[in-house]
Amino acid sequence: MEVIKQGDVPSAEDWTIDVVCKKERATKGARGTNPGGGCKAVLKITVKDLVLMSWHGTHFPHYYSAFRCPNCGKYTEVTRVPIPIWKNLYATKEAIPDGFDDSV
Ligand SMILES: [Zn+2]
To answer: Which of 44, 49, 90, 85 minimizes the C-alpha distance to 66?
Structure first.
């Protein structure tokens, strides 16, 4: 496939997102070890602020992107990361275990 005209995917250098420090994962909710408790700061983060985090499911680890709040030091999941940025994060960063383990 060939891209004839670039779409609206931002380059990694230009990408930013406004996030709220919540210290939680949307998909894990209250089951996790990390439910709520962030300081609710509103932050604009860039690709440099993203970290790779992991939790252990029944049989294998799962990964997600997050940021660490500079105010309170807690991690919050970032869900709306463009796929190229996510792929680079996954390929290049060491995952930080978030402490949740559902293995049998
Ligand atoms: Zn915070």
So the answer is: 49
